[in-house]
C-alpha cells in the first residue's frame, strides 16, 4: 500500500481564515456618592470659609469623591481654571464639574443631572485652650523719680513706694504697698472697674479710665493715709482704707 503525503501549504497563497466577530463593547452606568462643593460669590470669602472648615476638620475631604457645583458661581472658563488651582493647592481632587457652561481641556469632565443627597455635617474639633497669659507685673522695690512702669493689659503691684516724678500706668488696677507720691493711672485699657490702692496717699496725679485728678483737686483729707481710688457714676471717688 502506498503512502500519501499532504502537500505543504504556502502561507502567501493560502486562503485567509474568516475573521471572528468583534466582541460588543459593554457600557454600564454606575452611581457613587460624592461630596459637592458649591462655591458662592464673592469667591475670596467662600475660600476663607473653606479654609476655616478644613482647619476644624483637616480630614473632611481627604479620600472623598468631590464634585464642583458651579451653578451659583457661574465662572468664566479662566476663572474656573483659577478656582481649580485654588482647590488643588488645598489638596482637594475634583472628579467632575457640574453647573458650568463650558470647561477647558485638562479640567475634569462636565457632569449633568446630578441628584442632591443629604447634607454632610462638618465635624468640629475642640479648639485647644489658649495658654494663660499672666497680665500682672510686680515691682519688688520702689519706683524712683523719672522711672515709668507700664503694663497696658493688666495690674501693676509695687512692693515699695512710687517717688515723686515717677509714673505707673496699668490697664488694670494699681497696688502700691508703700507711699504713692508720683503719678498713677489705672484702667488705661478702658477698664472703668480698675482701682488704685496705696499704703500712703500723696499722689501728684491720679487717673482711672479717661478721668484724671491732680493733687490740687484732691484736698488733704486723705494725705498720708492708706487709701483707695475708684470710679463711681463717672466720677473719681477716694476713701481711706483704715
UniProtKB/TrEMBL annotation:
The UniProt annotation puts the region (Disordered) at 1-23
Span of domain Septum formation inhibitor MinC C-terminal: 139-238
Task: Tell me the GO BP annotations in alphabetical order.
Answer: cell morphogenesis; division septum assembly; regulation of cell septum assembly
Keyword flag Hydrolase: no
Tell me which UniProt keywords the record has, alphabetically: Cell cycle, Cell division, Septation
Specify the domain of life of the species encoding this protein.
Bacteria
Q: Where is the composition biased (Low complexity)?
A: 14-23
Task: Write down the Gene3D superfamilies for this protein, in alphabetical order.
Answer: 2.160.20.70, 3.30.70.260
Q: Which HAMAP family match?
A: MinC
Quaternary structure and interacting proteins, as annotated:
Interacts with MinD and FtsZ.
The record's comment on protein family reads: Belongs to the MinC family.
Q: Function of this protein?
A: Cell division inhibitor that blocks the formation of polar Z ring septums. Rapidly oscillates between the poles of the cell to destabilize FtsZ filaments that have formed before they mature into polar Z rings. Prevents FtsZ polymerization.
Protein name, entry field: Probable septum site-determining protein MinC
Q: Which organism is it from?
A: Methylobacterium oryzae CBMB20
Species lineage: Bacteria, Pseudomonadati, Pseudomonadota, Alphaproteobacteria, Hyphomicrobiales
